[in-house]
Amino acid sequence: MLIPNFQPQFETLNLENTVEDLKKYNFEIIFADEYFPFHKFFNMEALIYYVKVIEWEFPEFKVKDNFNELMKAYNELIRKGYVLNYEHRFIMVAINGELQK
């Protein structure tokens, strides 16, 4: 919502693809899970602070340059009482059996 025409730097980085890649190199997957957390921002100051602190998630974001997008977020805040942000995280534990020999 905040960065027009945003293209993720690593579009294929997800749990399924990472498991496949590691298995190709003889890794045994011990544990793999994913999570889809969300945040609710109840004021614009908190949203802007969050976006500026984790700049790798919001590359090239600037309040002045992204003012129109911030206004869309503000309208959501007024309409719903919060701005919703979804995320995707995953974790894996893997070992390479060939390295243990």
What features would you describe in this structure?
The chain is elongated, with a radius of gyration of 19 Å. The strands form two sheets. Strands 1-4 form a two-stranded antiparallel sheet. Strands 2-3 form a two-stranded antiparallel ribbon. The model has no long low-confidence stretch (mean pLDDT 91). It is an alpha+beta fold and 101 residues long. The protein is 38% helix and 25% strand. The chain has one domain. The protein starts with 14 loop residues before the first helix and ends with a helix.
Task: Please provide a brief summary of the model.
With 101 residues, the chain is an alpha+beta fold. Helix content is 38%, strand content 25%. It has 4 helices and 4 strands.
Number of strands: 4
Q: What's the arrangement of strands in the largest beta sheet?
A: 1-4
Amino- and carboxy-terminal Cα gap:
49 Å
Count of individual domains: 1
Determine the strand fraction and express it as a percent band: 15-25%
How many H/I helices?
A: 4
**What is the overall pLDDT average?**
91
Unreliable stretches: none
**Helix coverage percent of residues?**
25-40%
Tell me, briefly, the overall form. Answer: elongated
Give the H and E element order: HEEHHEEH
Helix and strand content put the structural class at alpha+beta
Structural Rg = 19 Å
Largest sheet: 2 strands, antiparallel
What is this structure's SSE topology?
Blueprint: H1 15-24, E1 27-35, E2 38-41, H2 44-53, H3 67-80, E3 83-86, E4 89-96, H4 97-100
Antiparallel strand pairs: 1-4, 2-3
